[in-house]
């Protein structure tokens, strides 16, 4: 009998291989309706598997975390810090997008009349519906669920978080009797994390199908006219992660590269699926193991999926000025400040709707005089940019959980160091015959 040691591909590498294969399949099956339908269905099934496990994890982890916290004053303090932090980071992201657009003028390098337009009717109807319900009072009223199970069935995150917080506080308030609920929900979360690990085995296939259908529908040639805008968007997002998040991390004693090392597989997953939900279950698990207390990680990360979309904020401000420049519309400083305020409001009011970033643009560009038809020219590349902004959102929410935990002295430095060090060791597989 002999033994040998081989290297096992990490999930991140498997997903990258799926990404490359998906691009190849997209080129091979360009405009092939049968192949596009098959890939679309496979991708949809994978995303549905993820959505199936997200809410049970959020409810169980958040309820237990709040119950263990047990102090409504402490919860209020953490909630206040979290929302202030989210607003500050989102504002910086919007400003960065505006600055980059003003410096590099991506809209000056294209002829808007030579671009092929895309159908955005699905976004228009969504935008009209969302805009009529995106006022401050409507947003606040919408957070409170009239029927918790209805919110669960529609996947409406904020009402689920609201109920779970109060359910956790109530569980803590009844003392010893509440332990049976905590034990049960702990078991539920463990089961769901186990299911998550099983579902992740399908991630490379799901990623392959999702990117494949995107390339097959529009073709690589469609990227050429908008290549500079895509490059600038990704470069801006990279600067935001490495410089802005890096400085925030340093301020709180965290090396951003250490965090990126820990969550790299989840960032690749979010990037390749263009779905923050795809990474949510594993991010909650990872940040818990990284030393963030359960109560904070279970509250901050799900809340961030509505209130802390840094990548989306960069894209929205950059795209708005890009289109204004393409139509030769000059925006004064005052108009850009107005745009900043409008983006801050609309991004919060529409965060829960499908294609939120694109919908926010639809609701915003009219304020700067850009025709709605302008968005039809970047609709085709929206998914490609969506991949980048989704990855930024995931990194931003992971960093937020560490920042809030450190501010509350609920971050285990030793646990974080040991967990991060485990990613430096090669993963081996022993086999025998």
Fold blueprint:
Layout: E1 3-7, H1 11-28, H2 33-69, H3 72-104, H4 121-131, H5 136-143, H6 148-154, H7 157-173, H8 179-200, H9 203-218, H10 227-251, H11 256-262, H12 264-273, H13 276-289, H14 294-307, H15 310-326, H16 333-349, H17 356-364, H18 382-407, H19 413-421, E2 428-432
Antiparallel strand pairs: 1-2
Helix pairs in contact: 1-9, 1-12, 2-7, 2-8, 2-9, 2-13, 2-14, 3-10, 3-14, 3-15, 3-16, 4-17, 7-14, 10-15, 10-18, 12-13, 12-18, 13-14, 13-18, 14-18, 15-17, 15-18, 16-17
GO molecular function: symporter activity
GO biological process, one term: dicarboxylic acid transport
Transmembrane segments: 12-30, 42-70, 82-104, 157-175, 195-220, 226-248, 290-307, 327-346, 358-381
Please report the first level of CATH classification, the CATH class: Mainly Alpha
The side-by-side strand order for the widest beta sheet comes to: 1-2
* Structural class category: mainly alpha
Helix content: over 70%
Poorly predicted spans:
1-6, 429-433
Beta-strand portion reads under 5%
Q: What is the element string, with H for helices and E for strands? A: EHHHHHHHHHHHHHHHHHHHE
Rg, nearest Å:
22 Å
> How many domain modules?
1
Q: Which second-level CATH architecture applies?
A: Orthogonal Bundle
Report the principal-axis shape. Answer: globular
Question: What would you say this structure looks like, in words?
Answer:
The structure is a single chain. The chain is mainly alpha-helical and 433 residues long. The chain has a single domain (3-70, 79-432), classed as Proton glutamate symport protein (Orthogonal Bundle), CATH 1.10.3860.10. The protein has helices spanning 11-28, 33-69, 72-104, 121-131, 136-143, 148-154, 157-173, 179-200, 203-218, 227-251, 256-262, 264-273, 276-289, 294-307, 310-326, 333-349, 356-364, 382-407, 413-421, and strands at 3-7, 428-432. The protein has a two-stranded antiparallel ribbon. The longest helix is centred in the first third of the chain and has 37 residues, at 33-69. The chain is globular. The termini are close together.
């Amino acid at each position: 009998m002999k033994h040998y040691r081989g290297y096992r591909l990490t999930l991140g590498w498997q997903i990258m291989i799926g990404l490359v294969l998906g691009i190849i399949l997209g080129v091979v099956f360009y405009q092939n309706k049968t192949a596009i339908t098959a890939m679309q269905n496979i991708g949809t099934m994978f995303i549905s598997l993820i959505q199936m496990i997200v809410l049970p994890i959020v409810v169980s982890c958040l309820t237990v975390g709040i119950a263990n916290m047990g102090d409504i004053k402490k919860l209020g303090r953490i909630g206040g810090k979290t929302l202030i932090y989210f607003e500050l980071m989102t504002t910086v992201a919007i400003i960065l997008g505006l600055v980059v657009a003003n410096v590099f003028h991506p809209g000056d390098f294209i002829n808007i009349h030579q671009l092929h337009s895309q159908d955005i009717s699905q976004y228009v109807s969504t935008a009209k519906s969302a805009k009529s319900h995106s006022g401050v009072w409507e947003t606040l009223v919408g957070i409170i669920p009239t029927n918790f199970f209805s919110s669960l069935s529609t996947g409406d995150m904020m009402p689920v978080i609201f109920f779970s917080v109060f359910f956790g506080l109530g569980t803590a308030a009844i003392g010893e009797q509440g332990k049976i609920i905590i034990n049960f929900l702990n078991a539920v979360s463990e089961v769901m994390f186990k299911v998550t690990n099983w579902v992740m085995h399908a991630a490379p296939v799901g990623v392959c199908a999702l990117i494949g259908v995107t390339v097959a529908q529009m073709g690589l040639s469609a990227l050429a006219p908008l290549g500079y805008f895509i490059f600038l968007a990704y470069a801006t997002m990279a600067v935001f992660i490495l410089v802005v998040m890096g400085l925030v991390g340093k301020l709180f004693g965290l090396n951003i590269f250490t965090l990126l090392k820990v969550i790299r597989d989840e960032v690749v997953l979010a990037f390749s699926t263009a779905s923050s939900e795809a990474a949510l279950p594993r991010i909650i698990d990872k940040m818990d193991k990284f030393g963030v207390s359960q109560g904070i990680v279970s509250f901050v990360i799900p809340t961030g999926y509505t209130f802390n979309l840094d990548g989306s904020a960069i894209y929205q401000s950059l795209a708005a000025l890009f289109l204004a420049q393409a139509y030769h519309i000059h925006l004064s400083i005052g108009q850009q400040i107005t745009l900043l305020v409008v983006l801050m409001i609309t991004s919060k009011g529409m965060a829960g709707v499908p294609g939120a970033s694109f919908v926010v643009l639809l609701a915003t560009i009219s304020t700067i005089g850009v025709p709605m038809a302008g968005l039809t020219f970047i609709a085709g590349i929206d998914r490609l940019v969506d991949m980048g902004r989704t990855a930024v959102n995931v990194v931003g929410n992971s960093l937020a959980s560490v920042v809030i935990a450190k501010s509350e002295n609920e971050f285990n430095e030793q646990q974080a160091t040991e967990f991060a060090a485990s990613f430096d060791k090669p993963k081996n597989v022993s086999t025998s015959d």
